Amino acid sequence: MSEKLRVGILGGTGMVGQRFISLLENHPWFEVTTIAASPRSAGKTYEEAVGDRWKMTTPMPEAVKKLVVMNVNEVEKVAAQVDFVFSAVDMTKDEIKAIEEAYAKTETPVVSNNSAHRWTPDVPMVVPEINPEHFQIIEAQKKRLGTTRGFIAVKPNCSIQSYAPVLTAWKEFEPYEVVATTYQAISGAGKTFKDWPEMVGNIIPYIGGEEEKSEKEPLRIWGKVEGDKIVPATSPVITCQCIRVPVLNGHTAAVFVKFRKKPTKEQLIEKLVTFSGEPQRLGLPSAPKQFIQYLEEDNRPQVALDVDFENGMGISVGRLREDTVYDYKFVGLSHNTLRGAAGGALLCAELLKAQGYITKK
C-alpha cells in the first residue's frame, strides 16, 4: 500500500482538472486515485471522457488513462475513495458552494481552485508565501460545519499573482495606492487558440468579474484572522483593468504604486529577491526556490522567455522605475494556470499536509 495520500480531482476532465492531473504525476506525497466529473463523463475511462480535449503540452499520464470517471454528484461514494480532493468543477457559484461543503461534511478536506468560497468568512484564501497563518481559521470553519477533519481551503484569483506578492514584499514601505492593468492569457478562460480563434491578433478589454476580484482579493489575503472570520485589510486601495490578450499562458501586469515611506529602487529590488515564506522554509515539493526574480533588461519580463520561471511557480518582475505621477511603476508576470491555478492549489495542499490539516483517513 502506497504511503502517498489518495487524491480525488473533482472536475477532472476540464482544463484546470487536467493541469492538476499532470502536476500530480510522480508527486512525492500525493497520488491521483479518483477522478470525478459530470454525469455525462461518469462510467467512461478518463481517456475516453477527455477524448480529443486534452489541452496540456505533456501527454496524459498513463496512471490515469484507465481510471473510471465517477459522478461528482455521488459525494459519499467519491469521498469514501480518497483522503482529500482538489476541486475544479464547472458549475454555478451556488452549486459549487453546496458541493464543496457536502464533500467537507464527509470529513474530506477540499482544496479548491474555484472562486465560490473565496469570500466565505471562515474559509482561508491563501497564497502560501504570503498568508499561511490564515489556515488557523479552519478550526472555526470545522465547528460551523460540524466536522473533525473536513474543511474547505481556496486559492485566490490568477490575476493577482503577478502583483500581490510584489506588494507584500514591499509592505514595510506602506504602499497605499495602486493602479494595475493586467494582460491576461486565454488559458485563464479554459481556452486554447484552436477553440478561441477570434482571439488571434485581438485583445478584448473585458473579463467578467475579474476587475472586482483583482481589486478586492489582495485585501483579503492581507487581512487578519479575528475570531471566527477573516477581516480584510483596508489598504492599499487598488484600482484595476483586466484585458484578455492573445497569449496562451501567462498574465502580465503593469502596476503603479504610491508609498507612505518612499524607498530607493535598490531597496525595492532587494526586498523582492530576498522575499520567501513557509513553502521555501519547509522545502515543499512544488515550492519555487526563488519566489520572485528581478530582471534588469529593459525588455523583460516576457511571456515567451519568463513564464516558466521556477516551473511556472515563480514571479518575474522588471521595468521598475520612478514615475512622474506615482512613486514607482513595474511590470510583473506570473503563470496563470500553474502559480495562478492548479499549482497554487497544489502548494496550498502541500502546506496543509505539512501543518497537519490533511492526513490519511
UniProtKB/TrEMBL annotation:
Keyword match Oxidoreductase: yes
One Pfam family here: Semialdhyde_dhC
GO terms classed as biological process: methionine biosynthetic process; threonine biosynthetic process
Gene Ontology MF annotations: aspartate-semialdehyde dehydrogenase activity; NAD binding; NADP binding; protein dimerization activity
The EC number(s) this enzyme carries: 1.2.1.11
Record keywords, A-Z: NADP, Oxidoreductase
Transmembrane segment boundaries: none
Domain Semialdehyde dehydrogenase NAD-binding: 6-138
Keyword DNA damage included in the entry's annotation: no
PANTHER family, alphabetized: ASPARTATE-SEMIALDEHYDE DEHYDROGENASE
Family: Belongs to the aspartate-semialdehyde dehydrogenase family.
Name the UniProt record assigns to this protein: Aspartate-semialdehyde dehydrogenase
Organism: Waltera acetigignens
